[in-house]
Amino acid sequence: MALAVAEAQRILRPGGLLLDLHPAGTPMRLEAWTQHRPGPAADDLDPAAYQRQPLGELALEDSASDFRAASAALAAAGQTGFEPGQTIPFEYRYFFDNLDEFSEYMDENEQLPLAGDALLERALDAIARATTPVKLVLIQPAIALSLRKAA
Questions:
Q1: Residues of the chain with pLDDT > 70: what percent?
Q2: What are the helix (H) ranges across the chain?
Q3: I want to staple 28 with a disulfide (CB 3.0 to 4.6 A). Which of 20, 49, 58, 127 is the partner?
Q4: Which residues share a beta bridge with 39?
């Protein structure tokens, strides 16, 4: 990350903006979102139209230390000609229509072991008990940070 910041410092014009998005140190979590009323699955996924049921966090992954290192490099960027701008924490959500779709996504990204059997069983149970359409929602806490290159 330090090399990336140094390269951005080299190529950005004075006053140029560097925007960084990266996961926060908080683990990902899984929720089951069940519609309040029966009907076809909503396309807009407005959270107000769903009851959210926490299923649990995914296991910490080894790369958490990488994200801490990235955050430290960005914090140090202010000493290398960048002025720290706005920092915004937010949640990035991935929606899945069923457990198979969720499991395939996790497997393709080599993260399936992070979910663990207990979490997958809770997801399966939530889907089985639902009386209205359900979405599985993987929530990744993330951070957006802007850095402006000093003139």
A1: 90
A2: 2-11, 64-76, 99-108, 112-129
A3: 58
A4: none
d(CA 58, CA 30) in angstroms, rounded, equals 7
The answer to whether 57 and 3 have CB atoms below 8 angstroms apart is: no
Phi, psi of 23, deg, nearest 5 = -60, 145
* Whole-prediction pTM: 0.78
Burial grade of 21 (CB within 10 A; 0-12, 13-18, 19 or more): exposed
Name the token pair of 118: 């207990």
**Alpha helices in 58-111, H assignment, sequence order:** 64-76, 99-108
Helices (H), 12-111: 64-76, 99-108
Closest residue by Cα to residue 59 from 15, 132, 106, 115: 115
- Give me the residues paired with residue 31 across strands: 54, 137
* 41 token code pair: 């699955």
Separation of first and last alpha carbons in the chain: 22
